[in-house]
Write a structure and sequence with these properties.
The chain is 31% helix and 25% strand. The N terminus is likely disordered. The chain folds into 2 domains: 280 residues, Zn peptidases (Aminopeptidase, 3-Layer(aba) Sandwich), CATH 3.40.630; 110 residues, Alpha-Beta Plaits (2-Layer Sandwich), CATH 3.30.70. The two termini are 34 Å apart. It is elongated and about 85 Å long. By secondary structure, the chain is α/β, with parallel strands linked by helices.
Length: 409
Amino acid sequence: MHETQPPQPPRPPITDLIEQHLSHTIELRHHLHQHPELAFQEKHTSELIQRELNDIGIDFVAGMANGTGILAHVPATTDDGEAPGETISLRADMDALPIQEQSGLEYASENPGVMHACGHDGHTAILLGTARILSQLPHRPHPVTLLFQPAEEGGAGGKLMVEDGALDGSRIGLPVARIYALHGWPNVPLGTVATKVGPLLAATDDFTIHINGTGCHAAFPHLGRDPIIASAHVITALQTLVSRADPADSVVVSVTAVAGGDAYNILPSTVTLKGTVRTLLDETRASTKDRLYKIVEHVSSGMGCTTSIDWTAGYPVTNNHPDAVGRFFVVAKATIGETRVGVVEKPVMGGEDFAYYCDQIPACFFLLGLLDEEKDPARVPQLHQPAFNFNDKAIPVGLEMMVRLALEG
């Protein structure tokens, strides 16, 4: 005897809702692009998000993470007798960059020297559109926490959101079981998404090295201790941190600024070097720092100079959890088709403060394709470039992915 299967609920009209709210979402994106704000200064952006959430009828807590962060909660709507599922969180970052825009767009930045060069305008607009769609769905099996985060660009806003209770249910809603976030990616084809298990983006640490010698007349170098020669050897020696690392590992060490001296005929007393270190493994991160200190000290002292180093620990590795990534792939393939879902071949050595959420709960950070088919990837403006612009044609896929992850992730 065959058991009768209970009737399945009708498929939510997500695509209809996306079409209904797409123009408004694009308008929001353009408005945000036109009014960019730097880290921890996202007052206008935060106020806009709060107005939108009030209009939708979604409860939220504002004033987080030094004032501009917002945490919103969409409760589950379950059938009689059905227990709600685990709480899912979706995150968007809000801040812009200190870059003078050169896009030529009619909605280009009105704030001199500030622009959305990393696509956070697109991320925020997509999450607001997702909120509007979720609020209109008749069946939501999971409670959903929407996380609007400031200061991704170097301010560690994600860390502050975690510390302010964004994940533990202490501010609003329930403790979060899994968290997802997208990032528009200019070299990933439009209409596709991609991610991977494990390290997706690198840990980011910065350093300032002071090499101190003894200044003297350039005609009498034997009377001084030349920090310029010492710094040149230090810069060269630091490259062994990469060339003599495990070839199967990934390490980037870049000296990006050199400052010392201001005359043709005087050897300075001090040279300052600035740079960054990028790694993918905790043990490599620690060993690279240790070796950098030793190289700087010993190379400099061998030339009669002393040193001091200011080390600034940056974001951790963005480490995607196998369970969250596995769920993402199932949802993505069912949503947009298996051929449009890719696996990222190798990590990106840029950093992302989504890493702080990854350190707390199962998390998945994924790339949303922005590259039009007819465009040459080598000629498309990249992230953090003054001509970059988020592709509006990617918004429907971003909306559907975020909605589906909220329902099924």
